[in-house]
Amino acid sequence: MKLEEMTSEEFSNFVDSLAVVILPIGAVEGHGWHLPLNTDTVQPEKVAREVEEILEADNYKVLIAPTLNYGNCRTTANFPGTISITPDSLRSVVRDILTEFMRHGLKNIVVLSGHAGSNHMAALRMAAGEALKTGNAKIMVLSDYDIAYKHLGEEVPKDDGHGGMLETSRVMAIRPDLVKLERSQGESHPELPPYRILKNPERYFTKGYRGYPDRASEELGRKMNQMIAEELAKLIEDMIEETVL
Amino acid sequence: MKLEEMTSEEFSNFVDSLAVVILPIGAVEGHGWHLPLNTDTVQPEKVAREVEEILEADNYKVLIAPTLNYGNCRTTANFPGTISITPDSLRSVVRDILTEFMRHGLKNIVVLSGHAGSNHMAALRMAAGEALKTGNAKIMVLSDYDIAYKHLGEEVPKDDGHGGMLETSRVMAIRPDLVKLERSQGESHPELPPYRILKNPERYFTKGYRGYPDRASEELGRKMNQMIAEELAKLIEDMIEETVL
Amino acid sequence: MKLEEMTSEEFSNFVDSLAVVILPIGAVEGHGWHLPLNTDTVQPEKVAREVEEILEADNYKVLIAPTLNYGNCRTTANFPGTISITPDSLRSVVRDILTEFMRHGLKNIVVLSGHAGSNHMAALRMAAGEALKTGNAKIMVLSDYDIAYKHLGEEVPKDDGHGGMLETSRVMAIRPDLVKLERSQGESHPELPPYRILKNPERYFTKGYRGYPDRASEELGRKMNQMIAEELAKLIEDMIEETVL
Amino acid sequence: MKLEEMTSEEFSNFVDSLAVVILPIGAVEGHGWHLPLNTDTVQPEKVAREVEEILEADNYKVLIAPTLNYGNCRTTANFPGTISITPDSLRSVVRDILTEFMRHGLKNIVVLSGHAGSNHMAALRMAAGEALKTGNAKIMVLSDYDIAYKHLGEEVPKDDGHGGMLETSRVMAIRPDLVKLERSQGESHPELPPYRILKNPERYFTKGYRGYPDRASEELGRKMNQMIAEELAKLIEDMIEETVL
Amino acid sequence: MKLEEMTSEEFSNFVDSLAVVILPIGAVEGHGWHLPLNTDTVQPEKVAREVEEILEADNYKVLIAPTLNYGNCRTTANFPGTISITPDSLRSVVRDILTEFMRHGLKNIVVLSGHAGSNHMAALRMAAGEALKTGNAKIMVLSDYDIAYKHLGEEVPKDDGHGGMLETSRVMAIRPDLVKLERSQGESHPELPPYRILKNPERYFTKGYRGYPDRASEELGRKMNQMIAEELAKLIEDMIEETVL
Amino acid sequence: MKLEEMTSEEFSNFVDSLAVVILPIGAVEGHGWHLPLNTDTVQPEKVAREVEEILEADNYKVLIAPTLNYGNCRTTANFPGTISITPDSLRSVVRDILTEFMRHGLKNIVVLSGHAGSNHMAALRMAAGEALKTGNAKIMVLSDYDIAYKHLGEEVPKDDGHGGMLETSRVMAIRPDLVKLERSQGESHPELPPYRILKNPERYFTKGYRGYPDRASEELGRKMNQMIAEELAKLIEDMIEETVL
Predict the structure, then answer these.
(1) Domain D3-7+18-241 sits in which CATH superfamily?
(2) CB-based contact (8 Å) between C32 and chain D?
(3) Are B4 and A37 an interchain contact pair (Cβ–Cβ within 8 Å)?
(4) Among A44-48, A170-174, B196-200, D47-51, whose mean pLDDT is lowest?
(5) B66/A38 touch (CB, cutoff 8 Å), yes or no
(6) Between chain F and chain B, are at least 3 CB pairs below 8 A?
(7) How many Cβ atoms are within 10 Å of F167's Cβ, its own excluded?
(8) So what's the pLDDT on residue C14?
(9) What is the rounded end-to-end Cα distance, in angstroms, of chain A?
């Protein structure tokens, strides 16, 4: 169920039987010339809806909170259209939201981010750690790409990445109208100098993506979205069933 | 146009001819038993779309940024389902977004909030003030209720307020499926002790709304939404045409 | 009684029978060429003394804390002589003071500001909200202009404002020696563009005041000061008598 | 001249010929049972007025800013009536005030504190250091006790201190009506364990003062106040005449 | 050369010919019963010295800054002896140090951490990002384990980790006197529930390490330390030779 | 014993019988041309080791924590090689460390700084004050120069100071290899204008030290180091034996 569409009364009636709440975290981030700025928003929203379906089939009630539409983007910060909030801002707002969930008695919480930048993810983890100081709950923080990238080397080449074959396929399966595959510029294998913090990372990353968007297909996207949802649903069920806090 | 649905390239091509960007600010807030938690989200989103229509008819290009779905709720903080972020978190994330707009060269910016709480609005104004330290732009910060409440005393009684006749009507005109008018509990005239900062404001505000939801009508809502959009469109056109920064 | 003039021992003896403490908040802010920079300081100090008189006549013991002489000024920030502290600094220092009042067991607290800027007032309310996290007390936060402006449209025109007929009259009744009425420049009806956050608001506000200082009179000032004190005294007595926290 | 009593216009006319601005910093702090809580406020205010007299006689124009009436009190924090703000709050508000002085073009600034606690003074120094990042000015930060204590061992015993013979004398010379010498409890030589940060320092400091209040005299106070003013006036004239920033 | 052992004059003479400065970041963190708390300190210090040797042989002058001996430990926070500083504290102090390096004109900077926790590393990266706002330099931020773990699956099993075969071997090669191999408790394969932020992670991590310390050897440690130093020296030489900032 | 060289198990076994933990605070700071940048690090480390010896002889178990190698330097900030962290960064990291000591049950804590700058020391005291809000412990915060300077006027002239006869002697007794006495430039009596916060203090402090390094001797250094250790050991034993918190 969508938290935002409930009334106070409906929430109040529902909260005790609730199994888990999912907070999708999106981003407004350049992904080459072929993918929309909300690429990292539509993916976790789609996964959340599919996870809800699977869990509800197993008789777990799921609440989906409104998406936080902004995230922190480090290496793509200077591309047209990227709107990056600082890790501190991200951390603050997510800490507040998780703290509110806990105040309302929610016991199982999933923070599901479409964007997987390391500082962005660290901000989310720190937010969860800070919320946990106000009480206790079982909190999971992950990107759907934490799961997706475990499958690289199967159908998708190992060096595919941001805006590549896998991500393009997934968006094609969700919002095909937003994908401009004809504007893709073929393979791209940017080699950012390793371990560097760069003022102008886009100099090393000229096409704004990494990998093989030209090999993308809606079918692969559907399959991956489904697989991610199933693996995540399993992880969440395990968390719900865990009795230790 | 929706910022989030553009690619980097489309944004890049579009930005120079852009007249104004609108950032809708929502909230997850209890509004009695008859209105959904996203009441303060659907209203500014609707107004933004109607403003876009009016402005585009006048040949101004409009960009609508992804809604920030969370806000700061003070007097309703303790109602079921309210998810309030602190004024500081709100300020930080909005400051970052506005700063990014300015970095991309956007010159006319409207922050349009559905929620009108005084600390919430102060946070938005402070965010704009801080962003202005990084450059210059014309920034407007308002709630659609700043406009709407100027019309109290006409069709809507002067003491109608949060979740009352006017707000219920407006939501009925936008998302009638989310309004549970049958769960409304009639007139409500809570008298919060004036000028007080209260730990438990809900004690004085027992129904969670103020005014006359029972007198609401979809027709009134449509009329008000239209009127707000027109007045706001006029204000924005004036801002665009102003030459001083 | 003045808190600052007591010894530790006197405070200690007095604190249990105390009904209310008033913290006046001033400002150093340009008010045209005819009013002194401490216009917003002398007014709440005067009101506090008159409120004390009224309450003591009703057998309530009143403590007046030392005035905080600095506030946050947004639209007048660039006028000669304005010394504005940030909303964050204001909030921090007021939060600390209120927290200390609560630590000493004071149960009824009034924060009375002469300046009524919206961010300034938001800072004071946030300070109170934060102090309330350390315990409980009944706290009122207001500007004397919250009361005064309810009477606009009676003797004073509705569009009178900052440094206008009403404010000039009030200062004339308190510190006539500081009013240079001959330097006033007649009516002034600045129209700041609505809802705007401006880098240089003084461009739209050229005389530094709004309204009709030329129509000011000491008599009107005395009457208004008295009326404000009486209305505020009534509000405070209601707060003291309230038993819920 | 008092900054607060000027109009914007008077400040504007005066600022170019101004030699120095003095910002007095007070405190609300327990000083035994014989001295008022504003002991540390009346002293720097008195010194500032006397310094002004001396400097104006030497043809230097002096501006006295409104006193900041609150300071940070560490070892006396738990005494009745002490209202201590944190070092961070103190630093923020003083940084803002100094930054504003510099924005208005004031080139010689003296921060004169009555209270001399080490964290309190550090906060003032840090505030000055931060303000200096926004421009340049000659800033002096001191307590009048930095000067006064250099004279211990002359008429006043070397181990006299907070609320002792020297301080009591000085307050007697300024506000004799506030001194309750009869409530003094004789000599007091608290030995706080050296270099300790204590949660409850008042356990070791039972009378709330240190030294010989019983030996205080108004005459000594007058003499000390005069001497401090003269030494400080000399330091300020040296600073004004210095040409390096 | 060690920065700390130079005089001001020596530093001043040396700084222009300097190729790179290395800042080792340590930790005080429980590593099972067999490794010392400074395990994550001695490793990067050793690597830094070996890198220096290699680089100096290639005629690059190297400066080694004093080690920051404290880091942020999340999953081991509750083990005896762990002294964890928050990510914010770590970030602040490292940001200050890097900013100072840049102020002194150092152009190539390596932050080398022994600890590899994700929030710890994020704090270091954020520190570098913030320092870069004050100017420009080439900054590399890594853990020696970023290099070491790329070799898992060769001599060391893939699931070896914190305090395991690899780390134990490395410390044996550096400070054999501090390794109490006899107190190791054999294989340990803690399975922390994936993606979870845990209040009490040690519940799932009962031996305080992960992997095969019993298979450790000084010889393997020496080999790994050497290999890491060589790979890192290569990366640093590439960075030094790069001409773009 | 050195905290850093213990294993988790050893720490765990040791902690109950522990009498006191010492945290040495160093600095990287220019001290003329004759002393190394780690002058303020080697001194408290030496004192800590000697204090440990004395206390252990009296059957008190001592833990020495890893040195924090960076401090805040105000007046020497602009000299070659000075790496100064802000007072806020210093405070944060030390607060975290002390809080961790308290979490582990350590009851007597000494923060021993080689550097004695007033803002630096204030940061350490504030850190201790903040840590004390999380529980209770006996905490001492001092510089070894708080003790050393009490002996000025005996063998060492009263106006000797930073990098002078006393400090040079002490470093000669600890690390004679790092002292370049031949690079000293004779007597230096910089007169910083009193009470001033200076943007460029080095203008008034041209040699980077104050006093008589040429009169330094290793013998005097040994004697002073010993005396400081003995006085400090006595203070610590008194603290340990104190029963009040």
Answers:
(1) Creatininase (3.40.50.10310)
(2) yes
(3) yes
(4) B196-200
(5) yes
(6) no
(7) 29
(8) 93
(9) 25
- Spatial CA neighbour of E96 closest among B232, D204, F28: F28
In this structure, what token pair is assigned to residue B174?
């936008």
Question: Cα dist. C219→C169, C212, D212 in Å?
Answer: 7, 16, 52
* Residue closest to B128 by CA, chosen among B86, B172, B96, B80: B96
Alpha-carbon span C124 to C119, nearest angstrom: 9
Does residue A146 register a pLDDT over 90? yes
Contacts of A9 (CB under 8 A, 6+ apart): B33, B80, B180, B183
Cβ–Cβ under 8 Å, residues F82 and E78? no
* Alpha helices (runs of H) in A76-160, residue ranges in sequence order: 87-103, 118-132, 144-148
The domain limits of chain A are 18-238
Neighbour-count burial of C71, counting CB atoms closer than 10 A to its CB (0-12 exposed, 13-18 middle, 19+ buried): buried
- At D191, the pLDDT band (50, 70, 90 cuts) reads confident
Q: What is the mean pLDDT of residues F123-133?
A: 97
E residues 71..130 contacting A (CB < 8 A):
74, 87, 118-119, 121-123, 125-126, 128-129
Contacts of residues C185-190 at CB distance under 8 Å and 24 or more positions apart, as own/partner, are: C185/C32, C185/C33, C186/C214, C187/C211, C187/C212, C187/C214, C188/C32, C188/C164, C189/C159
Render pLDDT for E95-145 as a digit per residue (tens, 0 to 9).
Answer: 999 999 999 999 999 999 999 999 999 999 999 999 999 999 999 999 999
For strand C138-143 and strand B196-197, is the pairing parallel, antiparallel, or unpaired?
Answer: antiparallel
Is-contact E20 E110, C-beta < 8 A? yes
pLDDT value of position E245:
59
Q: Is A90 exposed, middle or buried (0-12, 13-18, 19+ CB in 10 A)?
A: buried
Binding partners of F (≥3 Cβ pairs within 8 A) = D, E
For chain B, the chains sharing at least 3 beta-carbon pairs closer than 8 angstroms are A, C
Element holding B108 (H helix, E strand): strand B108-113
Q: What percent of chain F has pLDDT over 70?
A: 99
What pTM value is reported for the model?
0.96
CATH topology of domain A18-238: Rossmann fold (3.40.50)
**CATH class as words, domain B3-241:** alpha beta
Check residue F62 and give its pLDDT: 98
pLDDT tier at A151 (50, 70, 90 boundaries)? very high
ipTM of the complex: 0.97
Enumerate helices (H) and strands (E) in chain D, giving the number of each: 7, 5
Cα-based distances in Å from E46 to A224, D114, E42, E224: 44, 53, 6, 12
Residues 6+ apart with CB under 8 A from D176: D218
